[in-house]
Amino acid sequence: MAMQGDDGGDKLSINPVFVRPGEATSYPKDRFPQEESLPSTAYQVVHDRAMLDGNARLNLATFVGTWMDDEAVRLYTEAFDKNMVDKDEYPATAEIESQCATMIADLWHAPDPDATIGTSTIGSSEAAMLGGLAMKRRWRHARTAAGKPVDKPNLVLSSAVQVCWEKFCNYFDVEPRFVPISHEHKVLDGFELEKYIDENTIGVVAIMGVTYTGMYEPVKKIAAKLDEIERDTGLDIPIHVDGASGGFIAPFCQPELEWDFRVDRVVSINTSGHKYGLVYPGLGWVVWRDKTVLPDDLVFYVSYLGGDMPTLALNFSRPGAQVLLQYYLFLRLGADGYQRVQQSCLDVAQHLASGIAAMAPFELWNDGSDIPVFAWYLKDGASKNWTLYDLADRLRLRGWLVPAYPMPDDLSGLTVQRIVVRNGLSRDLADQLLEEITSQVAFLDSLDGPMPRDGKTTPQFTH
Ligand SMILES: *Cc1c(COP(=O)(O)O)cnc(C)c1O
């Protein structure tokens, strides 16, 4: 990482096959090269280095899309150069962006999709920050109008939130109030919520698809608890739903579940176009219920076809191609296509979960029926000589990335292992993985002493 720069003297040697006459045979590793290279030489070096990145198909750790069809790739190459912020130069892309936001608002049952406001972002992280900022600003306006202090905003969220919410609180000076999870309350479900909420609470985050485990938080139940709190205290607390994954699963596969704008307290929702929206990395969405919940003083106006267009974003320039890819998929798949794709992921996830549940040492945390993601842990005393970290290492030797990590508070003593099923993990591949897990467990069980430790600390959860 650049922040920790090493000695800087290292050289990156170039395969002699690709060194052209007169060219250097190496590059400085992390210093700016002085001389030019031929494009083909530079290409080969970057190509070869990127090859070490591993096989995305076997990466069951990530939620992010790694495959699109040929027509999408063609569109992508036609649109590489589009800059989302240049609404005036790319008015068609800008119009498609706002149409996509409205389509998503409709998908999420906004009472009047045409009255919503939304934007694409670089991912759910930026989208979540914008949702959080709107709640913070709205709280501040109300407090200021009431002549009350505005120096101690807080946000109530599960201890299992994705790191983007910790960043939001840190970067924008909001006190995070983490509600711990437990075996009894596996997700934020409203239990003891009143203990965390006061007049300085800007909102509550509900997660549709907890990153650690894939479970949904019961948005309607949380809202009902907030109704009770309002009756008792007069505090009217809004909900932002982090639907990074579930935003593109629930509408298609659990249409009866009320988690979105059907719940009155939900003021805004974010999702990742590049997760189950099925687009290549670099796309998120955030939509507000209506224009009244997004304070106008957060909105900037850029010129657009001789007029003004509202924008709200942390970045200025950012790629526009992903927005076109999202629109392409909306047209190509429609609701039926999304339903088929997501349901097949759910089927594979539940097939894998039942296979793992059938193995003696394991206990499921959840079964992959919310988003196609599930986690499991070791039964008490199930293994004397190995841990889930050892199993993750053994699977990695065979190319499979199946991460193990500690749960957040109050369960930080519990290690789980998680599988994220994405489009492309077929039932056949899933069966091969189950066989691999079975044989690695047999190997680990056959050890007559503990697996050696390399003294490194155990991994932390990072995504
Ligand atoms: C992945 C994820 C995020 C962050 O999304 P990016 O699109 O990677 O920025 C936020 N919240 C949840 C629940 C997630 O799973």
TrEMBL record:
The modification N6-(pyridoxal phosphate)lysine is found at K275. The gene is gadB. It is an enzyme of class 4 (lyase). Belongs to the group II decarboxylase family. SUPFAM superfamilies: PLP-dependent transferases. CDD domains: DOPA_deC_like. One of its GO terms (cellular component) is cytosol. Keywords: Decarboxylase, Lyase, Pyridoxal phosphate. It holds the Pfam family Pyridoxal_deC. Its EC number is 4.1.1.15. This is Glutamate decarboxylase. InterPro entries: Glutamate_decarboxylase (IPR010107), PyrdxlP-dep_de-COase (IPR002129), PyrdxlP-dep_Trfase (IPR015424), PyrdxlP-dep_Trfase_major (IPR015421). One of its GO terms (biological process) is L-glutamate catabolic process. Gene3D superfamilies: 3.90.1150.160, 4.10.280.50, Type I PLP-dependent aspartate aminotransferase-like (Major domain). Its cofactor is pyridoxal 5'-phosphate. It comes from Gordonia crocea. It catalyses: L-glutamate + H(+) = 4-aminobutanoate + CO2. It comes from the Bacteria. One of its GO terms (molecular function) is pyridoxal phosphate binding.
